[in-house]
Amino acid sequence: MATNNHRLLLAARPAGIPGPANFTADAIPARMPGPGEVLLETVYLSIDPAMRSWMSEGTGYQQGIPLGEVMRGGGIARVLDSRDEGFAPGDLAQARLGWQTHPTIAGRHLQKLDLTLGTAEDWIGPLGLSAVTAYFGLRDIGRLRTGDRVLVSAAAGGVGQIAVQMARIEGCRVVGIAGGAEKCAFVAGELGADAVIDYKAEKDLSGAIARACPEGVDLYFDNVGGPTLDAALAHLRKDARVVLCGRISQTHAAEPYGVRNLNRLAAVHGRMQGFLVFNYRERYDEARAWLAARLREGKLRQRLHVLDGLEQAPIGLGMLFRGENTGKLVVRLIWP
Ligand code: NAP
Q1: Model confidence over 5-23: pLDDT tens digits?
Q2: What angle do the packed helices 158-169 and 181-189 form, to 10 degrees?
Q3: What single DSSP character describes residue 249?
Q4: In 10 A of CB 198, how many CB atoms?
Q5: Gap from CA of 324 to ligand 1 centroid (Å)
Q6: How far, in Å, CA of 98 to CA of 174, rounded?
Q7: Is the Cβ atom of 74 under 6 angstroms away from ligand 1?
């Protein structure tokens, strides 16, 4: 019997937090692979804050997705049929699959999973792009050094979890900022942060950072931007580094928040730098080798927040902006 490819298409550009109303569902017969192509069944989709900007019309760092097209997104899939000699049925691979159950993709756009490094779940979690982002952000942009006093925001999230643990592994003192008691308990108890700040319970975030980081901050890994970035800047130490990884707090701000404490950056001879993980494509293997080694040693973990079913993808995307995800958010379509 012919297999149907169930898809979620971008139907309306988001005005606020994205959700199911921005998408329509359809189903078309899965396309048999042509020469050099592979027919896949999607196993996991990664749900990431950047997707919100891809839904807009060319305002993000990548071109906006045209209305009516399959929503863009990366994930892991199993090969069903292949006309690329590099792939055989049953292989697991990762690619930009889109929000669909049965994509047909050129083999050259697929990367076969090296299952000696980790399971399919590891490849969407602690070996996935969020983890790789934390690796390059800390190592290349943050120039992480043993003994650094490190502060990480959105510390319970996909990128933040790995940043906290990586800094701990490298012999740093780490403070995590997260929203709510449960997430803070996770960051301290499970990830091993030396101190945590529940920013939702703090009226004076700068004061809370001063208490949690009495010697100041050598490296601030910023996932949220806005007032949190400002508060962190006020506590930088000499030669501090600020890694601009993301600014999720500003995604839906009517007016972008104007950072006020840049004078502190000058005063401490500090450096603030942004980056995009995609520009490290050539070095993903290096990051994954490091992450997989720590995984094997039992020093690294990543809590996933798993939603089941393609229809959950738009719901999951909205959860990221409400802080409702309790780990790296993924959608599972079938059991690997
Ligand atoms: P995530 O941290 O798993 O989920 C997003 C989290 O952001 C939420 O759980 C929430 O945590 C926090 N948040 C949401 N709205 C907020 C607000 N208004 N103020 C403060 N915190 C808020 O997501 P992720 O995929 O790991 O991404 C984390 C950041 O990294 C994002 O900014 C993303 O854009 C960025 N990123 C950058 C790159 C790159 O190449 N530079 C690559 C991947 C991701 P709380 O409940 O703790 O508030």
Answers
A1: 999 999 999 999 999 999 9
A2: 30
A3: G
A4: 18
A5: 11
A6: 36
A7: no
